[in-house]
Amino acid sequence: MAPPLAAAAGAVSSSPPLFSPSSSGPLIRRHAPPSYVSMRRRCRSQPAAAAAEPSGSPLLEVRGLTASVKETGQQILAGVNLTIREGEIHAIMGKNGSGKSTLSKVLVGHPHYEVTGGTILFKGEDLVDMEPEERSLAGLFMSFQAPIEIPGVSNFDFLLMAVNARREKSGLPALGPLEFYSVVSPKVDALKMDPKFLDRNVNEGFSGGERKRNEILQLSVIGADLALLDEIDSGLDVDALEDVAIAVNGLLTPQNSVLMITHYQRLLDLIQPSYVHIMENGKIIKTGDSSIATQINEGGFKSIALV
Ligand SMILES: Nc1ncnc2c1ncn2[C@@H]1O[C@H](COP(=O)(O)OP(=O)(O)OP(=O)(O)O)[C@@H](O)[C@H]1O
């Protein structure tokens, strides 16, 4: 049986984002608005590596990647080049429809897309011919823009199956439910989630923000060498965004990496990227440090709508 993450990777929806990136008020403030300066202090676990020279080993190497919608043959990715090294945080920004989500879905092997050219190496291995579950077991994790429901499967069982699939691959003995509870419980607390969420079916009836938190719970329990986070900030209120950023920052080590897709500077303030890439028409057209996002905000890239 395919591990559950693979099932998730294979059955995602391509729903539109929960709010338009050009909308002016996506945050729902439950309390007095916290200062982003103090949020940054609490969320930051490592200094921004913007000016750092690349030093880690390459984790993901994408060269000349082209990909199309399988059903129609419509080309979406038009020659993507991207290298992510161990310990780096990358952000991809760009206007709606530029191909950001498609890139992340192609990386996890979404069945709607076909790679038509180029190469993807993950830890030196060719990813293109791997099944989605193999990619997941190899250490790739993706949080989706619109996380799916899995009726009839409790969150707890889902996480336990996923963790045990990873452990089996590493030759480790499976965890029993009691043992696993002691692993998952502190992570639920850290994300300020109600423990009752573990008993609920995966994402069933969850609000948009609860789904996003739940995806980060999956990431923190399962772990990943490279986490692809597609608009984890969409639909989160200020407190939830801070909790999620703290959790993501807490997972970062010199060995693992994050690729996040976002339209919003506020996420880059909380999870500070080593590199920011701008995507347009299925290609990365510019790469730089986080000042690129500032340039966008100041009108340097007028076609890209950002808050
Ligand atoms: N399965 C599909 N069938 C048809 N068109 C698709 C499919 N997947 C992606 N596309 C199209 O490819 C383009 C890129 O979509 P994608 O979701 O990657 O953009 P994006 O940059 O993530 O946009 P956003 O910022 O709005 O989330 C869009 O025009 C989209 O309609």
From TrEMBL:
It comes from Panicum miliaceum (Proso millet). Gene3D superfamilies: P-loop containing nucleotide triphosphate hydrolases. Residues 1-31 are annotated as: Disordered. Residues 60-306 form the ABC transporter domain. GO terms for molecular function: ATP binding; ATP hydrolysis activity. This is ABC transporter domain-containing protein. Residues 1-26 have a biased composition (Low complexity). The keyword RNA-binding does not apply. The lineage of its organism: Eukaryota, Viridiplantae, Streptophyta, Embryophyta, Tracheophyta. The keyword Transcription does not apply.
